[in-house]
Amino acid sequence: MMTLKRHLLLISNSTLHGGGYLEHCQEHIQKFLGVQVKRVLFVPYALHDRDDYARTARQKFESLGYGLDSIHEAVDPVEAVQKSEAIFIGGGNTFRLLKALYDNGLIPAIRKRVFEDGIPYIGSSAGTNVATVSINTTNDMPIVYPPSLLALGLVAFNINPHYLDADVNSRHMGETREQRISQYHEEPDTPPVLGFREGCMLLVEGNKATLLGKTKARLFLRDKEPTEHEPGHDFSFLLDY
């Protein structure tokens, strides 16, 4: 099996209850980026107010010792990706994010930087969704329409960030998150889905994938019962599923 250069940190959520922006995962981010990376390219396309979003991200990354450039301020977004040392795509609306990635011609540019050049990629929430095969398992409303639901394909499976367990005391009669993922798997040729509860993250280094964070993840495979997995679990088999 060919070893890929990819380095990914895929995070379920930017803010964990009781903490600040990226506070729950900041040590993982610092360890992931190391001392080699000096500046991070931020992609704020998932939110409408990109200036404000960039200020929030810049403040956080500067506090961790990294400079931050926002792609929406670049004259040429593709060139910004080509020159980047690391990429961070933040959360918000996944459809808005993916449409902007397509509109700016960034899908092949980001794939090349990750797969061929091996630069670190960090995704949070929507930024994690677009790192997967498709955005079919996002929780977001389709407020805009990207040309395709196919995403960056940096891994061979999908993720459902902010996964919620069914509340046995709830009177809500709609589908649970598990039922919605099951409906997705009723369609042919659908990949595995990892349900990321708040606090979950996945570290991908080449052909190895390890669950990190504070909470369990729930794995959904077609025609199989879902399974629970603790932080530290090896999910490498999903990378070439």
From TrEMBL:
Q: Which domain of life is it from?
A: Eukaryota
Its localization reads: Cytoplasm
UniProt keyword list: Cytoplasm, Dipeptidase, Hydrolase, Protease, Serine protease
Question: Which Gene Ontology molecular function entries are recorded, alphabetically?
Answer: dipeptidase activity; serine-type peptidase activity
CDD domains reported in the protein's UniProt record: GAT1_Peptidase_E (cd03146)
Report if keyword Cytoplasm is assigned. yes
Which family does this protein fall into?
Belongs to the peptidase S51 family.
The protein's annotated catalytic reaction(s) are:
Dipeptidase E catalyzes the hydrolysis of dipeptides Asp-|-Xaa. It does not act on peptides with N-terminal Glu, Asn or Gln, nor does it cleave isoaspartyl peptides
**Which top EC class is named for this enzyme in its record?**
hydrolase
Q: What is this protein called?
A: dipeptidase E
Name the InterPro entries on file: Class_I_gatase-like (IPR029062), Peptidase_S51 (IPR005320)
Question: Gene3D superfamilies this protein is in?
Answer: 3.40.50.880
GO CC annotation terms, alphabetical: cytoplasm
Purpose of the protein? Hydrolyzes dipeptides containing N-terminal aspartate residues.
Which GO BP terms sit in this record?
Answer: proteolysis
Which Enzyme Commission numbers does its entry carry? 3.4.13.21
